[in-house]
Design brief:
The chain is mostly beta strands and 135 residues long. The protein has a single domain (3-115), classed as Metal Binding Protein, Guanine Nucleotide Exchange Factor, Chain A (Beta Complex). Helix content is 5%, strand content 39%. A hairpin with a 4-residue loop joins strand 9 (85-87) and strand 10. The longest helix has 7 residues, at 31-37. The chain is globular and about 40 Å long.
Length: 135
C-alpha cells in the first residue's frame, strides 16, 4: 500500500515528499557509505516506483556519482544532509532514513557489506546509553 512520507535536511533549505512504499531497509557497512555518513553505516530505504517530489530547495540538492561504480549520493549543498536519490528516472528512490520527518513502520532487514565493516564496529550492545548528551 502506497503512503506519503515527508523529509527535509538539517538546515531546512530542502524538503521533499515521497509517494510510494518502502520494500527494503538496509544498514550498509561498505567503506563508501561509512565515508558519506561519517559513521559505522548508512541506513537506506528502497522505494521501487515511488514518486519523489521536491517541495522546496531542489536547486540546493547536489548529486555525486563515484566514477566507474553504481555508488551515488544526493545531499544538501548548505548543510550536507543526505537526501533521496532518484535512480533510473523513477524506477527506484533510495532514501536515507535519517532525512525522513515521517515515521516509518519498516525496521532494518539486514546489515549489508559486512566484510567492509570497520574494525571498531562491533559490540555496540555493550556500550553505555545516555538519554541526552553526557556531562
Amino acid at each position: 500500500m502506497d503512503q506519503t512520507y515527508r523529509g527535509s535536511c538539517l538546515c531546512g533549505n530542502v524538503a521533499f515528499q515521497l509517494e510510494g512504499s518502502f520494500a527494503k531497509f538496509y544498514l550498509c557497512h561498505c567503506s563508501r557509505c561509512r565515508k558519506t555518513s561519517g559513521s559505522a553505516h548508512c541506513a537506506n530505504l528502497f522505494a521501487p516506483g515511488a514518486k519523489l517530489t521536491w517541495l522546496k530547495g531542489e536547486k540546493e540538492v547536489s548529486f555525486y556519482h563515484l566514477p566507474d561504480t553504481r555508488f551515488a549520493r544526493s545531499f544538501c549543498k548548505t548543510c550536507g544532509s543526505m537526501m533521496p536519490t532518484d535512480v533510473n528516472s523513477g524506477q527506484l528512490v533510495v532514501v536515507p532514513a535519517g532525512c525522513l520527518d515521517s515515521e516509518v513502520a519498516l525496521k532494518p532487514q539486514a546489515h549489508i557489506c559486512c566484510d567492509s565493516r570497520a574494525n571498531w564496529d562491533d559490540g555496540f550492545e555493550d556500550v553505555v546509553c545516555f538519554s541526552d548528551m553526557p556531562s
